[in-house]
Amino acid sequence: MRPPGASLNIRSSKHEAADASVKNGAPPLMENFNTPMWQIASQMAICGIFLIAFIAALDLARPVLLPATFAFVIGLMLGPLSAKAERSGVPTIVTAIVLWLLVVVICYGVIALLATPVLDWIGKAPEIGNIIKARLHFLDGPMSALRDLRNAFLPEKEQTGAGVDLVTFVQPALAIATPAIGQTFIFFGMLFFVLLGRSRMRRTLATGFDDHATRLRFLKIWNDIENQLTSYLSVVAVINLAVGLGAAAIAFAVGLPNAIAWGVLAFILNFIPYIGALIMQLILLGVGLVTFPDSAHALAAPLLYLGFTTLEGHFITPAIMGQRLTLVPLIVFLALVFWTWLWGPAGAFLAVPLLIVALVVFHHVFPKRVPTLPD
Q1: Share in percent of the chain as helix, strand, coil (round to 5)
Q2: CA-to-CA distance for 63 and 55, rounded, in angstroms?
Q3: What's the pTM?
Q4: Which of 42, 43, 117, 137 is most buried per CB count within 10 Å?
């Protein structure tokens, strides 16, 4: 039979053993969480939580952040022009109005050139769907096998037809690509105020830092971002203009209707790395299938455009842009995937400019140190 004070003696003996272990140098269990490994893990967890919250905030604030980011990036691209005009004695308000009107005219011209053919093709959507279905009849066998395989895993109560309805594809695309009235107002309004208050905003942000070295680094980062974005916009715009002219010439030579519209569309889509050329090839293939009676003639335009863009992407663009604006293709692709996933097609246009901004800031904050070679 256990004595009445046995349990108390056991507890006291445990405490005495713990005190003895502390006196002997063995740390308690809670002190293990103060080791460098646990501190690094906690810091990584905090950074991960912040990153997730930041991405969620970007997604939730997309209706406001997307046009505002577009306006700010374009304002930075036009910053060197504004600075040059200011050094020449042109008033800031005049420069801002001229550059703002230039952007408005370009946007209006693109919309005017694309509106008529787009509305025309949308009106012919049922007819176009039937024509494409008839031309692609050789895909009925593989598509039927895929449907049977899908129904084996995910059976459907009601089978739907296999017709191609372009309206179901065009309407969501237009709903995404066409900005709302509020977003358009945010874009043009913020663009004007960014152009108008560029110098004051730059000066205010620089004076917000305490020491002179940090102010100087901020000004260098700002100037480098503006110069890099301006170089990117000017060089890529010239290259894409040549691509648009080439696409229009191909469409005209092959016999596609609305050759100018396809050239403008190629100019716009080529701002999206990798994916833009692929989308243009699919568009030319669809237009060719609808326009021409035989499939061989329909393949002429996309194949010629594929050869032209391959020549441009592998030889012409690297030779013109040089090493200064060369970006790692994997990083460009990951940025394209991320911003397209987060902000849709508009994010695809912002992927490379935002990547340039991030790389410029990274190179200034973490400068590359050239190792010294031994004698």
Answers
A1: 80, 0, 20
A2: 14
A3: 0.72
A4: 117
